[in-house]
Amino acid sequence: MSEAAVVKPLHDPGRRRDRERTREDILEVATSEFADRGYSGARVDEIGARTRTTKRMIYYYFGSKEGLWIAVLERAYNLVRVAEQELHIEDLEPREAIRRLAELTFDHHESHPDFIRIVSDENMYRAEHMRKAGGLASLSVPAVDVISQILERGTRSGVFRRRVDAVDVHMMISAFCFFRVSNRNTFGVLFDRDLLESTLRGHYRTMLGDLLIDYLCAKSEPLNPY
Fold first, then answer.
1. Nearest 5°: CA angle at 109, between 106 and 115?
2. CATH number, span 74-226
């Protein structure tokens, strides 16, 4: 039998790897395109031109422009969730554990500005696309679980004295890290300070951990709305 007559099996691992590589290439380029131009301004034709595929093939993988946008959102959130799961902070003292988790978010948001732009754009749409993606909500569960475990250990040991909700702590960390990147330019104009200036990086990174630890270790019994 000649080489030309050899037919690869339908479930050939090489084909599967090629499909996965093509899909990842599309998502990588689409992330950049959506971050630069927003959901409404991005063009699937442009994404196809910058990858090894075509507009038709993109629709084959993702169904539509909206499907591609949702896949980009899922990938962006999953990247930070995977990083959190790989942190291995189970054996760290609770204060050090919450600081390390905050620092991971700080580093991730700084190094993934496209994530910030895409999430900001989705908020402009009042998260209408995220609501259609059932899997996105479940991506938040591991993040809250990690914080809950740290808070439980800290409370049990007497280190953390404030009764607090894990989602609130997640919000505090995200708010600090997200604002630093998303509002860099407007903040710079108003206060003549670049929040991403390299000489200030250590200051803000330490500040975030100190704020969390001081808050969690202070004795307080606020009304709990939950």
1. 165
2. 1.10.357.10
